[in-house]
Structures are given as C-alpha cells and as structure tokens.
Design brief:
By secondary structure, the protein is of the alpha+beta class. The chain folds into 2 domains: 2-161 and 331-361, P-loop containing nucleotide triphosphate hydrolases (Rossmann fold, 3-Layer(aba) Sandwich); 179-260, no CATH class. Helices cover 30% and strands 26% of the residues. It has 12 helices and 19 strands. The strands form 4 sheets. Strands 1, 2, 3, 5, 6, 7, 8 and 9 form an 8-stranded antiparallel β-sheet that branches. The protein has a 6-stranded mixed β-sheet with strand order 10-16-17-4-18-19. The chain is globular and about 65 Å long.
C-alpha cells in the first residue's frame, strides 16, 4: 500500500499542482524558493489535520494568510490524496476543501473518504464518494465513530506523514541530552527520543541495531560502539553515549560532530525494524561528508523497497546516486510552483556523456535559479 498520487491547490506557492504521481522514490530538487519545502510542508499539514491539531498549527504558522496561495484572496485550499492497495491498484482517496473565516483561520467546507469499487477486480476506477464532513468544522471528522469503517485505512498513512529533520545539533538540542527511557514507541520528527528508541532497537531488534552500528562506524571509524543503557541513578532517563576505539571512557553526544550525530539519526530512521509507510525528510544531506552521503543514498534506496520515500535536497552528490525516474524537478513558472518528473528517455543521449549533477549544473534538467 502506498500513495498513488497527490493534488494540492492554493497551498503556499502551489496554486494547482495537478496530479503528481508518487513513486517508491521521490527526490525533489530545485532552487531556493521554488516550493520544495512547501510540498514537504503539505504532508506536515496533513499530519496536523489527522492529529486534530490543525488550528494550533495554523495559528503558529501565520494563520490562513501564511498557508494559502497569495493569502486569503485565493478563496480556498484543497487537497486530494489517492492510495493504492496491497496489489498496487488504486483503492482509496481522501480529499478536503477549506476556506478562510473572518478571523483569518481555516475551516472545512467538505471532507471525503472515497473508495474505488473496481479496486479488487480491475484497473478501472469507479469512485464511491462518502462525505465525512459536511462543512463548518475547524478540525477533521476522520475520527468520528460514524465514519470509522470508511476512514480506518487512512490512519496508518496519516500517522506516518511526519517530516523528519535533524538539523538542530546545537548545545541546546534535544538530540544531545537525556530523554525519557520509555519514549520509544516511534522515532519523533526531530529525533529528541533517539537514545530511548535506539535502546529499544538494541534490545528488541539486535540485527537491525548491529547493522546501524556497523554503518555508523563505516563513516566514523573512531567509534568503537554505541553505549545505550538507562542512567544508573535515574533509570527513567537515558542519553546517547559511545566508546572510542582504544579507550574505555564513555563519551556523550556533545562529543560528536554535528554531521556524525545527524548521520546516526538518519541511520536510525532508515534502518529501524518497523518503519512508517511514508518517510519524508527535508534536506538530509546537511553537514554530511560526501562518503556519508553515498552511504545515506544506499540506505534510502534500500528503504524504498518497503516504504515510500520523499526527500528534498540541494546536494549534487546525493542526486548522482539515483535514477532520473526518481527525480522530481521543482521550479517556479507563472508565479506558482510546478513539478516535473524526469525520465531516462526524456534525457536521451545526455546521459551517455554527463551525470545528473552535471546536467543539473548545465540547466538541462531545470531546477536552477
């Protein structure tokens, strides 16, 4: 099961995306301000919608004017997400439309959970629409008992619409301190429960943990092992500690470089035993050595076999690790964000002489300022 396609209307710089087909791997490239982050932000919007935290999210991020294409004057915002079943056939659809109110917030004018009546017998699509929100509410009706049978399929997907970013590695970062030792159900978006999550992986999925440790040491050979145990004095707390080769002393995350700490987070996300169905990462290459980026790309490709991967990047080193079919070029045209998926056939003989990054520099791919 996965996302077949998505359509976004009047969200930030995206006036109308049209139908964007999503593949197992989706690597977004483009210049600053083109709209890559806005596409990623739409998944955050969907996650907040599902968690019934939408109004808090809207209030924190600039009200309706901060979310709508050129502000409230666009009149409405809408989204349409189509999902496939286990046989990779179009099966379900979630769609909504919202409008701004007089207080510069957003409310639902409709919300639908649709089912394809042909999903089990053919490749045809015949939608059976079911309204789950007749309008006027400020939060989703997806969780209402009356609609539970129609919306059960949505829960797994919407819970996984989390945008992971491990950018904050400052001294005040939650990545470097203690966390609750029992906060290990899932890896949170900023990695603040990393020690607890790794501890559980070590205890319950040792094969995955050993692979993670091996991968980390391949780009940080000074690390002998990761040391993960609850604090001896306060067993409710745990922090990330590690041993250096040739020494018995334990060091904590404050002694790791920013790039090494981010790489550990990425390894944890991509090598975990029970990953989310959708993995969304904003600029994972930040602060990584080219060798680490090569390792990262291998993990991303492997993870795409069991999860749908959506990544925005500015890294030419990361770009060269993927196929043209994995790349979505994001640009501005006619005062809006436009999307174009590359293809090997479309690039033709260019690929005989140049790498993808060279073609990007030459502006053959587009996605340049």
């Amino acid at each position: 099961m996965g996302i077949h396609s998505i359509r976004i209307q009047n969200f930030k710089s995206i006036k109308d995306s049209g139908e964007i087909i999503l593949e197992p791997l989706n690597i977004l490239i483009g210049p600053n301000g083109a709209g890559k982050s806005n596409f990623i932000a739409f998944f955050k919007f969907l996650n907040m919608l599902f968690e019934q935290q939408l109004q808090n999210h809207i209030a924190r991020k600039g009200r309706a004017d901060g979310f709508m294409y050129f502000g409230r004057q666009s009149g409405f915002m809408a989204g349409d997400v189509i999902f496939t079943n286990d046989d990779d056939k179009i099966a379900n659809r979630y769609r909504f439309r919202m409008e701004p109110d007089q207080s510069n917030s957003l409310f639902f004018t409709n919300e639908y959970s649709d089912y394809n009546m042909q999903a089990k017998i053919s490749d045809q699509v015949s939608w059976s629409p079911k309204p789950i929100n007749y309008g006027g509410s400020y939060e989703t009706k997806m969780h209402d008992v009356a609609f539970s049978k129609r919306t059960d399929f949505l829960r797994e997907f919407f819970q996984s619409f989390k945008v992971f970013h491990f950018h904050d590695t400052s001294d005040s970062s939650k990545l470097k301190g203690f966390c609750n030792a029992t906060d290990y159900e899932y890896l949170v978006e900023d990695g603040s429960n990393l020690p607890a999550f790794l501890y559980r992986m070590k205890e319950r999925a040792p094969t995955n943990f050993k692979m993670l440790e091996f991968t980390v040491k391949s780009i940080a050979p000074f690390i002998d092992s990761l040391y993960l145990l609850p604090d001896a004095i306060n067993a409710n707390q745990i922090e990330l500690r590690w041993k250096e080769k040739g020494h018995d002393n334990l060091f904590n995350a404050y002694s790791l470089s920013d790039g090494t700490l981010r790489f550990i987070c990425l390894c944890t996300l991509l090598l975990q035993p029970n990953p989310p169905s959708t993995i969304i990462i904003d600029e994972p290459e930040l602060g990584l050595h080219p060798a680490a980026i090569t390792k990262l790309s291998a993990m991303i490709r492997s993870a795409s076999e069991w999860a749908q991967i959506i990544i925005s990047t500015q890294s030419i080193n990361l770009l060269d690790q993927f196929r043209p079919e994995d790349i979505v070029v994001v640009e501005r045209g006619d005062n809006q964000t436009v999307f174009k998926r590359l293809s090997k056939e479309g690039l033709g003989e260019w690929l005989d002489e140049y790498t993808l990054s060279e073609l990007w520099r030459k502006n053959v791919l587009g996605g340049r300022p």
